[in-house]
Fold these 2 entries.
Entry 1:
Amino acid sequence: MQFAHNQSHITLHFEPKHMALVDEIKQILKTSLADHPNFDMIANAFNISGRTLRRQLAEAGTSFQKLLDNQRRQYAINCLQNSQMSTEDIAEALGFSDVANFRHAFKKWVGLSPAMYRQQFQSTHNSLSA
């Protein structure tokens, strides 16, 4: 954190620490989500310990689980909006152990079940194109 004094007020500037690392992890997750990357795989990819990776992500204001959940959410939303993939197929593609865990996670992320989300999206999309 740096302090900048400009005339009669003080402004705080926060420097994004480890944001390049976060961006690289996001890219890895985006391109290898189907391979179900886990925390240890990511730490090994950067040749750092899990403890160091956890600390650096915390300093950047995030965690591996938050980054993974965000990528999973984006993938699931894309599938529900742009494909006819079943909920079961989406859950499997994302590495969930069973579809109920995926449905629970999706509802936590979005506030709707996957089926309700798809139905609501299609209703909205169809009314806009009519």
Entry 2:
Amino acid sequence: MLKTTVSHMRIALVALASAAAFWASAEAAHATFSEDAGITHLCGGVGAAHLEALKAQAHAFNLGFWMVEGPRGAYLADVPIQIKAGGRIIATFTAEGPLCYLKVPAGEYTIVGSHKGQTRAIRAHSGSMNHYLRW
């Protein structure tokens, strides 16, 4: 019984340490980190230093996308995002910067964003890291 309790405490401490590491990396990148229905996202990248700090976290995620506007691809921030799977919304958040990383179960997703009253949607598979929502 005591052995099981100690084992559960160790597991809880490892999970807590992992979450703290993610929050620390999000803070360094001036990004938002959240988990919604098993979908973890990290968004941000406003400013060159923050963008590089965010890109350094890419290894922990399996889907990535950018939000850009115009022919030169000006970076966008504060974009409301919906993640859909099988036609239903499974996560919603506001992207605080031009780059978002997601940790999702294997599969295909529709990423929907709204900017200046216009909605854009892209389809993306887990494992792909370089999609663009363009306005």
